Amino acid sequence: MLGHWAALLPTPLPASPYLLKSAIDTASLGVWALQFTPRVAVLEDAVVAEMAGSARLFGDLAHLHTLVEAGAVELGAKLAWAPTGTAALALVRHGGSEAGDGFQIPLERVLDALPLEAITAVGKHQPTLARVGCRTLGDVRKLPRGGLSRRFDPSLLKALDQAYGLRPEAYEWMVLPESFKGRLELMSRVETAPALLFGARRLLVQMAGWLAARRLGATAFTLRWCHDVMRAKDAGTGGEITVRTAQPSQNVDHFARLLTEHLAQVQLLAPAGDIELLATEVAPLIEESRSLIPETLRKGASTELALERIQARLGSGCVRRPVITADHRLEWMQSWDHALPKRTVAHSPYSLPLPTWILDEPLRLIERDNRPHYQGPLQLLLGPDRVEGGWWHRSGETGDARPLNVQRDYWLARSPHAGVLWVFQQRLAGDQTAWFLHGHFG
Amino acid sequence: MPFPVRSAPSTFDTGALPRHVAEAVWRGSDVGGAVSRTVSSGFTLLDSQLPGGGWPTHSLTELLMPQAALCEWRLLGPALPSLIDSGRRVYLIAPPKQPHAGGLAQLGLTSDQVVWVGASTPVDRLWVTEQIVKSDPAGVVLSWLPQARPEQIRRLQIHAQSCDAPVFLFRPTGTLGDASPVPLRVSVSLAQGWDLEVRIPKRRGASLDDTLYLAALPCSLAKVLPPRLKTVPAPLLAPSHQEASHARALGRAAPHTPASQSLSS
User: Fold this and answer.
1) How far apart are alpha carbons A279 and A217 in whole angstroms?
2) Beta-carbon separation of A383 and B247 below 8 A
3) Which member of A82, A172, A367, A438 has the greatest number of CB atoms within 10 A?
């Protein structure tokens, strides 16, 4: 009958710069608590959760306490621990900060000192009980049971017994919703997009709780905001941004940093009053097995996160990874993609040397005495390496598309100041024959 | 009253110092020891002159070049195989020209090992470099920072101290006159033939006044270059304006034409 119960009572956050209008509702608090244990129930105006069975999963009870406490602070909820659910609820309502843990001293002594209102079923009869001289739960417990059961309704004795762990408690457990949608009303109208982050962070914590309970990671989430009624006519009703991550993740800090970067680029058309967060795309999360030796932790995982932050700030096109295609023309041998390549492409069929740097556009070289110059006269070392092809390739579909056919003789050249170069001469170009610089063997 | 005999400075024994102090003390005439793991540069001559016998990790390395895209891969290419084994990556931050994946593949870099991060403004370059260095990547970081103030580089150096990958900053040779908080500065330029001329203006320990000449043939050219081009600087050849009708394969030098004689006259 005795377990390890936590009771979470929503309270408005006192010390925040943007006061949230209402405290978190019990349903979202319950969803968040489901990540620790499946035994979560809404009891009156609070959430109770039985966590004895989860102690092993989270290391030990002390670690579990720290996790729940940190989350409760962030979500704005008061927390108390006790061996029964009703006692935990009574403690979270009326216990001071020092009495938040019902395990320090025997449960009877903790509960005996609490006022009658701590347990609702007892509090209902407060006027009657007060007239008999009862001020605390301990006073009620000292009254004869027979008299209590005859004079008051049976729920009083039942609640009292459940609180003291003399009778089993039965609750209807919460069921985890299939999808996540969190909504928050902001206390004051928010006029700049980055200021939305404060409220959004609380929703992100809730979403991370839901993801953890479902053993999922989010690959995309959407933040919506609704403009309040005092908006300009052309502002519309609201807006939204979707933030994507490459790897499924539950990391609140990473979500918050990505959202910060995205919100920094958003201009709110009108002040926003409400925000809403949705987990739009989720994928199963493969958790890493814990290792005794810290060295075996996968390296480079934080670099992926860093690259995502860079993409969020500088645009998704700034992180580029090469894709090699089977083409002999230097320009179309590779392309750059901003996403992680799905599979490793076969190596280029090209077995002859290729430069390590190429120019975006071949640079026409000046000629003196029939000799190409680039930072001095070029010394042609090896060649020619003839590349022909591309008659099938046009630069576009429209009428002004030009054929991308190339007929070039590539030479390896050395310039006294610019190092080893990859230059070519146009073939069959008539008067247009010229030398071009195309790459560097840097 | 007998006084304890003080040892002369010449017989100074580092063993008498506390261990952490002794590790940080070196003779002014020696090449400094390694503070952290080093990675062999692939050039025996260069390794013998670098503190710890290779490129340092947990620290920045400044490579100074007269112009960008000159000889980066020729210098770093021999060290690459040991830097990028088991799928580690090369992070190129704001390179001056477009890297060519085909050419990099010939150095041993597969296409999923190359990450090119573009950044245009100096502030962005610094921020991107800092983010990547801070995340302690697996592989090697190459960053082109033509404009950076010493205090900005000092900030990077502090982040690099917790980074297990070598971090190379490419900067113009013109910045050699400025003070730099980077513990190792290497200045590179082209020399005769295939050699690179390498100076080490700053390193831990005694300064190096000599110039090192490293035979740095681009890796991809080594197997196609005929022996006569490998050893001596090839004679100047002038190309003909006419099309080389019988040329089919690489490895054939351009034929002598009257143009070359006209040039020498």
Assistant:
1) 9
2) yes
3) A82
> Rounded to an integer, what distance in angstroms lies between the CA atom of residue A242 and that of residue A244?
7
pLDDT above 90: residue B143: yes
The amino acid present at B126, given as its one-letter code, is L
Q: Is residue A111 part of a domain?
A: yes
Could you tell me which residue, A81 or B233, shows the higher pLDDT?
A81
Q: What ipTM did this prediction achieve? A: 0.76
Domain segments of chain B as ranges? 38-221
The token pair that represents B207 in the structure block: 């300064």
Which range marks the domain in which residue A403 is found? 357-440
pLDDT at B69: 83
Q: Give yes or no for residue A23 having a pLDDT over 90.
A: no
Per-residue pLDDT at B240 exceeds 50: no
pTM (two decimals): 0.72
Chain A residues with CB inside 8 Å of B189's CB?
none
Backbone region of residue A430 per phi and psi (left: phi > 0; alpha: psi in -120 to 50; beta: other values): left
Q: Which of B70, B86, B100 to mutate to test the interface with A (most CBs of A within 10 A)?
A: B100
Average confidence (pLDDT) over A322-340: 79
- CA dihedral of A30, A35, A40, A46, whole degrees rounded to 10: -30
Which residues on B lie below 8 Å from A415 (Cβ)?
Answer: none
Omega before residue A384 within 30° of 0, cis: yes
Instruction: Mutation target for A interface from B85, B111, B126, B246: give the one with most A CBs within 10 A.
Output: B111
Q: Which of B111, B224, B254 sits opposite A322 (nearest CB)?
A: B111
pLDDT band at B250; cut points 50, 70, 90: very low
CATH class, domain B38-221, is alpha beta
Residue of B nearest to A360 (CA): B98
Domain count, chain A: 3
Answer yes or no: is A102 within a domain: yes
User: With contacts defined as CB-CB under 8 Å, which chain A residues touch B96?
Assistant: 357
pLDDT(B147) > 80? yes
Kindly report the nearest CA distance between residue B220 and chain A, in angstroms.
5
| pLDDT of the residue at B87 | 73
DSSP alpha helix (H) spans, A370-433: none
The answer to whether the beta carbons of residues A318 and B117 sit under 8 Å apart is yes
For B212-237, what is the mean pLDDT? Answer: 73
Please indicate, yes or no, whether residues A245 and A149 belong to a single structural domain of this protein. Answer: no
User: A418 vs B70: CB contact, 8 Å cut-off?
Assistant: yes
Of A334, A353, A442, the CB nearest to B71: A442
- pLDDT bin (cut points 50, 70, 90) of residue A20 is low
Residue A428 touches chain B, beta carbons under 8 Å:
yes
Asked whether the beta carbons of residue B225 and residue A382 sit closer than 8 angstroms, the reply is yes
Same domain flag for A154 and A59: yes
pLDDT number for residue B22? 77
Nearest to A319 among B74, B115, B259 (CB): B115
> Do A81 and A207 belong together in one domain?
no
Q: pLDDT tens digits for A186-242?
A: 777 778 888 888 888 888 888 988 998 888 888 889 998 888 777 777 777 788 888
Chain B residues touching A326 at Cβ < 8 A: none
What number is the average pLDDT over the span A343-351?
A: 57
Asked which of A163, A196, A219 is the last residue of a domain, the reply is: A163
SS3 A237: coil
In degrees, to the nearest 5, what angle opens at C-alpha B72 toward C-alphas B68 and B76?
Answer: 165
Other Cβ atoms closer than 10 A to A428: 9
